[in-house]
TrEMBL record:
Residue numbers spanned by region Disordered: 1-56
Source organism per UniProt: Candidatus Caccousia stercoris
Biased composition (Polar residues): 1-25
Protein name (Swiss-Prot/TrEMBL): Uncharacterized protein
Biased composition (Basic and acidic residues): 39-56
């Protein structure tokens, strides 16, 4: 039997692994990087980026924002790419490399793009209304109350209600996520575990069809989650199943947070403020719930046919039905959509692929309804609205248009392709005449050839300040 109390030989390769430590010198008067000023310290091995709390233990929430800014800088816009795609497909029904299905979908999309002035206005109006989720009489009353009483407590209560309302209005989407995630988990589990999960999923589907939210939550929290936790503990599955379980837990938390009772309780908290009590104080619980359900239903209106058709083409292109070029084009399109729907993006976003006067055009629009005078770093009084319009016209090129509107005064700056530089004065005159036609004061109208396309952050520097980003923590 070996003597286990004796000193063993060092591990090969680590014989010289001696960490240098600063010697304690009692007479050294120099104290470096004091971890705690209330205590007497000596020189240590701390760096200037360390303190009493270890940096590794703190979650860096700002890293998500930095990742968003990085994606925003690298993605740019897709106006030129999509305009080239639309122009190259104009008048063609079948293209080499496309399957019959996606070729037919593209043909339908191109037929829907031809619009006149009125149809273009309706399309733009529908795009902007769809990008504003919180609209209607309920949110008009909330905004009015916040303007009358801009207190921190009212703002906190409104934000708490909005979180619950958002989860409540997304009930159908969350339920589909729950079903899809559990189905995907069963694909990556051994049969002896997936069979039991399949039975639990069938029970969940039955409860969801009956609109039994309470029963579905009891099944999820009391049966399915413990079963999946035991599975991960027994099999030591640290791969796809565990990642899917994290998504499942998030959806369960949102599903519970968006219950009608929880939303009503949060709304009753708002009725303690006089402006909101004036609007909704005479409603009982059933009328309030019906009112909130109607608002949620209006927020989930189906998209316009053109938008649905564009998404259908994108779905097939992302599956590889149209080849690598088409997939790359729609990958850039989907990246742009997702970035502009980020909680860190305080702007309204719309895309307009249209054909007017025989020319294909793809446009992207960003609107800030609460812009400030960033040029001087302070507001010059009155509410301002700023928009950035990027549009690429077939055979002409890319244009950038920035418009700022404040107190019936409008400023516009147009960047046009270099070959159109002789027409800059004409552009300025046309913009001024359009403003005068609408009864606006054209304080500044400028047109110049484009040196480089404008970035979103140049026009809207408030993105870096995170003033209007949304806290979506559950």
């Amino acid at each position: 039997m070996p003597n286990i109390t004796s000193v063993t030989n060092p591990v090969p390769g680590q014989e010289g692994n001696n960490t240098y430590r600063s010697p304690i010198t009692p007479n050294d008067p120099h104290i470096q990087n004091i971890p705690d000023p209330s205590r007497v310290g000596r020189a240590d091995a701390r760096t200037d980026r360390q303190d009493t709390a270890t940096a590794e233990s703190a979650r860096r929430y700002d890293s998500y924002f930095q990742a968003f800014l990085k994606e925003l800088r690298s993605s740019g816009t897709v106006a030129e790419l999509m305009a080239h795609f639309l122009a190259s497909r104009q008048g063609t029904l079948v293209t080499s490399g496309l399957t019959a299905g996606i070729s037919h979908e593209i043909a339908q999309l191109l037929q829907m793009l031809s619009v006149d002035d009125e149809a273009l206005f309706n399309l733009l109006k529908g795009q902007l209304s769809g990008s504003a989720r919180f609209h209607g009489p309920l949110f008009d009353a909330l905004r009015e109350a916040l303007q009358q009483n801009p207190s921190a407590s009212l703002k906190a209560d409104i934000l708490q209600f909005l979180k619950k309302y958002n989860d409540f209005s997304s009930t159908a989407h969350i339920e589909r996520n729950l079903q899809r995630t559990l189905q995907q988990m069963s694909w990556f589990m051994p049969n002896r575990f997936s069979e039991a999960l399949g039975e639990q999923l069938s029970s969940l589907n039955s409860l969801l069809m009956q609109n039994n939210r309470a029963g579905a939550l009891r099944l999820l929290q009391g049966t399915i989650v413990p079963y999946l936790s035991d599975y991960v503990a027994q099999i030591h599955d640290r791969g796809i199943s565990r990642s899917l379980m994290g998504l499942l837990l998030l959806d369960i938390a949102r599903y519970e947070n968006g219950s009608p009772q929880s939303m009503l309780q949060s709304f009753y908290q708002l009725l303690g403020y006089a402006p909101l009590k004036r609007h909704f104080g005479d409603m009982d619980a059933s009328r309030l719930l019906l009112f909130l359900q109607e608002n949620a239903a209006s927020a989930n209106q189906p998209s316009q046919p053109l938008t649905e058709q564009l998404l259908q083409v994108a779905s097939q292109a992302m599956r590889g039905d149209g080849g690598a070029d088409l997939r790359q084009t729609f990958q850039a399109l989907m990246d742009s959509i997702l970035i502009n729907q980020s909680v860190y993006m305080p702007l309204m976003h719309a895309m307009l692929p249209v054909e007017m006067d025989g020319r294909m055009m793809f446009s992207e629009l960003w609107v800030d309804p609460d812009a400030e005078n960033e040029a001087n770093g302070e507001s010059s009084g009155g509410r301002a609205m700023r928009l950035l319009l990027k549009f690429d016209i077939q055979d002409l090129g890319l244009f950038d248009l920035v418009i700022t509107f404040r107190d019936s005064k409008v400023e516009a700056s147009l960047l046009c392709p270099r070959q159109l530089s002789p027409f800059t004065e004409l552009f300025e005159e046309k913009m001024a005449s359009l403003a005068a036609k609408e009864g606006l004061d054209a304080s500044s109208m400028r047109a110049a050839p484009m040196v480089k396309p404008l970035s979103i952050s140049e026009v809207f520097p408030k993105i870096f300040e995170r003033k209007d980003s949304i806290n979506v923590a559950v």
